[in-house]
Design brief:
The chain is of the alpha+beta class. The chain is 26% helix and 27% strand. The protein has helices at residues 9-15, 27-30, 44-52, 70-79, 86-106, 172-175, and strands at residues 16-19, 35-38, 61-66, 110-118, 133-140, 145-149, 158-160, 167-170, 181-185, 196-204. Strands 1-2-8-5-10-4-3 form a seven-stranded mixed sheet. A three-stranded antiparallel sheet has the order 7-6-9, covered by helices on one side. A hairpin with an 8-residue loop joins strand 6 (145-149) and strand 7. Helix 4 runs antiparallel to helix 5. The termini are far apart. The structure holds fe (ii) ion (FE2).
Length: 211
């Protein structure tokens, strides 16, 4: 018996849907896709700035915020790190926008926001997150890699989310025992000298029980 149910890439596109217009982001909750990628192009000068900036100047943080406090709080976090130039304002506005889009999509008042500056192999194993849903946007470096595997082993075929395009993925709390599993990982980058800026947001349904 063949236990290795590897799924080809064309089938993967049916499960992780790509949109090019943000107004279709609601497909993530209204349709049965396991994930949605908002394939977007950010301004070239912003991507160029993100690619070149000293990683030490990008703050790492992990915190739960009320959706109405995101802009003020993110402004405060970045205030100590960088001077307020055009590019940093763009980044603050984009983080705020993605947070608002995701909290309204998930119908929550609270969300956890995380920014990670990564230069090692973090989360390199293919996995599914123990959350209801997650939005990941890699502003610099290779994006999240995803594939499908019916038996939970590493997918042989996988795709890489475009840099600066958000990917929304359903987690174990949404999918439960559905056997069709979309697995993802951070791309292995150790030893390449690459540094990634990864922004992650999760919906918080019960803020009192969260750390
Ligand atoms: Fe993950």
């Amino acid at each position: 018996m063949n236990l290795n149910y590897q799924i080809p890439l064309d089938e993967l596109s049916n499960q992780v849907h790509t949109i090019d217009d943000v107004s279709y982001l609601s497909d993530f909750v209204e349709q049965s896709y396991y994930g949605v990628i908002w394939d977007r192009h950010i301004p070239v000068n912003i991507q160029d700035w993100l690619n070149k900036i000293d990683p030490k100047l990008i703050p790492s943080f992990r915190h739960i915020f009320h959706k109405n406090e995101v802009r003020k709080s993110i402004n405060k976090i970045f205030e100590n790190s960088l001077s307020k130039d055009t590019q940093i304002n763009w980044l603050i506005q984009d983080i705020t926008r993605l947070s608002k889009l995701f909290s309204s999509l998930m119908k929550v008042d609270y969300i956890r926001l995380r920014m990670e500056v990564i230069s090692t192999n973090s989360c390199r194993k293919f996995h599914i997150d123990a959350v209801k849903a997650r939005l990941i946007c890699t502003y610099r470096g290779l994006g999240t890699q995803y594939g499908m595997s019916m038996d939970g082993i590493d997918p042989k075929h996988f795709k890489t989310t475009p840099t600066s395009s958000p990917i929304l993925l359903k987690g174990t709390l949404w999918i439960e025992d559905n056997p069709k599993m979309i697995l993802h990982r951070s791309p292995p980058i150790e030893g390449t000298g690459e540094t990634r800026f990864v922004f992650v947001t999760d919906p918080i349904f019960d803020p009192e029980n969260e750390i």
